Amino acid sequence: MACVTIESSAQGMGPLSLAPMFPQLMKAFHCDLADAVQFTGVCILILGFMITDIMFLHERGRYNTLYFFFYWGSITIGPVVAGVMAEYSNWRNYWWLNVALHAFIFLICLVGFPETKWHRVHPSETPRTAPATHSQSSDEPKEKIAAHDDITIEKMDAKLGAGGDGDLSKQATAVRDPYLGKGKPDKRQFSLYQPNSNPIKSLMLDFWTPWKLLAFPIVEFAAFVVSWSASSFLTLNLTQSQVFAAAPYNFPPQSVGFTNFATFAGSLLGLLIAGPMSDWISARLTKRNRGIREPEMRLLAMVPFVFVMILGNFVVAFGYQYKWDWRAIVIIGYGCGGLQVAALPSIAATYAVDSYKPVTGSVFVSITINKNLWGYGFSAFITPWSLRSGFIPPIMTNMCLITLWCSFGFLFWYLGKRFRYWTRNSSVHRM
């Protein structure tokens, strides 16, 4: 998990670190601001699928949030480093640093990243056997059998205890499974190529499944929430030089980059709150639901972060337009932007993963396809639109779209189980 998290962090420190360099890039390439923004590119792959391979269900929310914190946190730290190097060194040196960082991480992943996917045999893959006959003879009274079953149920209830949770303490679990927490990867998991009985078919499925999943309502919901929440963060990244490098602020590249510390602090706060809160809400609702966990239980945790997102966009849009004090824009607007981008994507993505665990990797690829497509389109129109009409129309329009997609969480809260029922016979459950 550390290898993939570091790799995603390195990707985040790449194209979106250009923001403090825009003035230098405009001079170097003889272009205007809108053209310089197009240099960014936002095609970053989300690699959080390995969390499902190695972490338990009740831990999934906090570890997904931890991953997204490093993912978005690197995108906020990248401009800080880039701003300092652009002002005191040369903007090209930052990219040579990026080359060295990626080379180092490639070596780490090559020698320290084992294969985490393990195929568990699906019931449909096992040969069916004839049902066992009842040990009692046909003339045995049914009342006696029923009484025996009632006694067995009573013994099980007594063993589980009044709370119905059973003995799930760490010590009791370790006794039942002495290998829990003591395993380690096999040497074969570090091979450059994993044996596969039908590699061509597997490769074709890997290409096709992400597109297929985009037709599933739950995956599409998660993709839209992640994409538009990320675009709210992208707004801050693409407009910070446009606003703070100009009058009345006149920040140098280093100071423009330092504004991203507020976004990083917001992401850190989201890490501490969002993941544990979504897991806690799921656990509480599971207990109220007689121990049956539903993926939709996690959606309730999105509500407070939607309001945080709305507040942040209002402060940024009106602060930019009416030249508010930079402290209000950065501390409140950028801080809320970092908080929501660490929370909303992790909760929505975890909901999709809980619903379709066997194809977790393809779920994240589907989300990434949607995110990158919208992110590139957003970067193409945000600068010309803001120059022509001001900051309020584009930022408020994007905020309304984010609120719209997140509001579909209420629909999935009530109908998510029916959507999962529609796809119950899909082959994705047997991969």
Topology:
Blueprint: H1 2-12, H2 22-29, H3 33-37, H4 50-54, H5 60-88, H6 91-112, H7 142-160, H8 170-176, H9 199-213, H10 217-244, H11 253-258, H12 260-288, H13 303-321, H14 326-355, H15 360-389, H16 392-422
Report on the architecture of this protein.
This protein is mainly alpha-helical and 431 residues long. It has helices spanning 2-12, 22-29, 33-37, 50-54, 60-88, 91-112, 142-160, 170-176, 199-213, 217-244, 253-258, 260-288, 303-321, 326-355, 360-389, 392-422. The longest helix is centred in the C-terminal third of the chain and has 31 residues, at 392-422. Residues 133-168 have low confidence and may be disordered.
Task: Please describe the structure with a list of short key phrases separated by commas or semicolons.
mainly alpha, 431 residues
Briefly, what is this?
The protein is mainly alpha-helical.
N-to-C span: 22 Å
Helix content: 55-70%
Structural class: mainly alpha
List the total number of helices: 16
* Total beta strand runs: 0
- Give the radius of gyration: 25 Å
Name the beta content range: under 5%
Reported for the largest beta sheet, the result is:
none
Mean pLDDT: 78
Taking pLDDT < 50 over at least 5 consecutive residues as the criterion, the unreliable ranges are 133-168
Shape, please?
globular
Return the string of H and E elements: HHHHHHHHHHHHHHHH
